[in-house]
Fold:
Amino acid sequence: MAKAELTAAADTNLHDELRGRFGERYSTAAAVRDHHGKDDSHHPVIPPDGVVFAESTEEVAFAVRTCARHGVPVIPFGAGTSIEGHVQAVRGGISIDMSGMNRVLAVRPDDLDATVEAGVTRMQLDRELRGTGLFFSVDPGADATLGGMAATGASGTTTVRYGTMRDNVVSLTAVLASGEVVRTGGRARKSSAGYDLTNLLVGSEGTLGVITELTVRLHPVPEAMAAAVCAFPGMEEAVGSVVEAVQMGIPVARAELLDGTAMRAVNGYSGYAYAEAPTVFFEFHGSEDEVRAHGALIEEISRGLGGSAFEYARQQNERARLWKARHDAYPALLGLRPGCHGLTTDVCVPVSRLARCIAESEEDLKTASMPWGVVGHVGDGNFHAVFIIDPDSEAELAEAEAINERIVRRAIAMEGTCTGEHGIGLGKIGYLESEFGTAGVAAMRAVKAALDPQGIMNPGKVTG
Amino acid sequence: MAKAELTAAADTNLHDELRGRFGERYSTAAAVRDHHGKDDSHHPVIPPDGVVFAESTEEVAFAVRTCARHGVPVIPFGAGTSIEGHVQAVRGGISIDMSGMNRVLAVRPDDLDATVEAGVTRMQLDRELRGTGLFFSVDPGADATLGGMAATGASGTTTVRYGTMRDNVVSLTAVLASGEVVRTGGRARKSSAGYDLTNLLVGSEGTLGVITELTVRLHPVPEAMAAAVCAFPGMEEAVGSVVEAVQMGIPVARAELLDGTAMRAVNGYSGYAYAEAPTVFFEFHGSEDEVRAHGALIEEISRGLGGSAFEYARQQNERARLWKARHDAYPALLGLRPGCHGLTTDVCVPVSRLARCIAESEEDLKTASMPWGVVGHVGDGNFHAVFIIDPDSEAELAEAEAINERIVRRAIAMEGTCTGEHGIGLGKIGYLESEFGTAGVAAMRAVKAALDPQGIMNPGKVTG
Structure:
């Protein structure tokens, strides 16, 4: 309906109003629209009708107010690195590109926090924090924007120690469907004041508001860090090493699993020579003594499970090289079959059930006709099977989706979730009700209708 | 309006329906109603019209559905230990006493979590976890129920290390205003699926639903623990020692401030002989080496600020005695003026501003005509000034509230919050708008109206 309005008489007025305010920073060029109608996944391009390149909260508010007056959808766009179809303009509308809102507004070492505009990317923040003795912990593979990471409830390799975006967003500024600007809190480390609007917006994928600024937690760079690589005879043993460490409360900073296929892909993509077996990349943070002690404890656990001797990386450049291998796993897997797209599962289960969940899921995966690999944030109970599918083959897409469905149903039956960190987007709407029941989804829809009565905020996502 | 209905014709039917279902477990006795219309604070008794003693989620759902049909308010009641007037029946209605829902349903050492009914108290859970090697970390002073602690977004002395209820509730089961039962998630350690209903209910103080079950995180009991007491020449130095430790990333497990008055009260209440000076109670958790190292680092910081030599408590019974002193601070302060009530401030500010916030607040406090003392969760930026007021003196209440208002306005101006852990209840409704702006409060009211269109869930609290 909104789409219909946009292509009718209201269309010209809306375009004129946006062009009048944003000039060159409003574009309806086909290439620009196409770029804003796709993400890093297999989901097809569905372009918006125009793209605003916003540079301030006030500009975002103007764009939202204008769209609201015309009843036209608004879709926030960060770096376009999401993978569940979050940015596709399924009902048309205006994409708001946040990449111009890329200022780090404040870094406060005394409070271990920073305030940034939503278009700042995680690597940009890393660079700006150099020399402060602080770091921002959440690191999804892609160089996503902080606003996008908050909107999808992202996490990463250090979540086992430092938490998800949810744990690391202190408060945020957002433009609601009415065009009003709301700040969800101050900078205190805790608060019991009112409903938790921060956590309502984190993970809402642009369907409740456009996040324009965030205050995030920073962590002191540990005195010592060491990474270690360990190959295992099988997936069960690899998973077991991490789960045992977590159960014992050993504060591992990272524990990332790659299966043999992913290791082969990484070797080929970046010229490494790792064993092409199930492997865990560990990292330990703390004082020199703690790092040594944690490493020794986990190496002992790993050896008991048939793991190889730990291959340590202690220097910054060695560790960076090692973690680049892990972060490259997704493009490396895609590289196994050039020209293909990824379809990625994202289930997360209680850690005690992870080994069984992966083992049973691998039985499903083995039936696949296309290549696939598994990577996992094992300490969180979260793993991804990446299917490498021919973008022109509907049969492959259907096959991968059918296996994904089996994996999701199993995870939910194990008291897990269909998505540990990628979000619902378009791809997982069908699982929401099995995870939360009709009453849970009805409550979500009631909240959505209350905050966005016209249904213009990234419509068609999350609750459908 | 709801109150008027209850006292009219609907009244009899409602009482009959509840009596029919609950028998002896539905009471309209004056003493029972009075007990359920007050909490641990200065707020006056406002009794409900009847009290249901529920024993299952289905019973809570029945009571809520019945009240909803009659348009009558529902007020959940845990241990009655809240202190902002959360349980007062300001518009009449039915109190649902959750203390009969006191079963620990599951403890899962392999997943470091437990599922409990909402009426389980924190000390009961402590007892039931003995011998498992695990503990539940959140410890407000009172022996509150877990459901009540979730509803108010409680925290405690270990929050600086292990987080608030928000950080420790994995998911929960709640009865919504419609009488429908919703489960807000599974048991995975993270999820990006849909809107965060868990965090929407945590801190909602019964205004969005009645929490009936919770899955909470547990933590492994550390290999070693040591507590230490350190007296300082002044409040600024005492606060400074903790803030510096937090800023350096030293993982202190507890860091609790008591001013000279609170120390005097504690000595008198429990027969201790501590110095009656600003004092910090520290605790360190980890391996033997870590505990020694963290203690030494913080002792060095403290000495630099004029702190006394650390007086260590390493054995379980010594530590328990030390922490009992801290947990007794509130009743001990009340004991300074027998027969009086407490009015407690609860601001929380960014840690870099805490010393200044306390110093400026003490200037306000010094004008008070009644006794007061200060205790603080310094590592979180949270402190409480406890006014000990004559329950029959409206002038003292007004005076304490006026000073509280100055403390709150200052904290909000410092990007802090009016409540770090006690919640809004009746007592802090007036500050919500200064903290979140009109747009923020309007968003909260929209959420409330969406999930509770009749306004029957603990009406008059949080958003008013």
About this structure: Chain B touches chain A through 93 residues (CB under 8 Å).
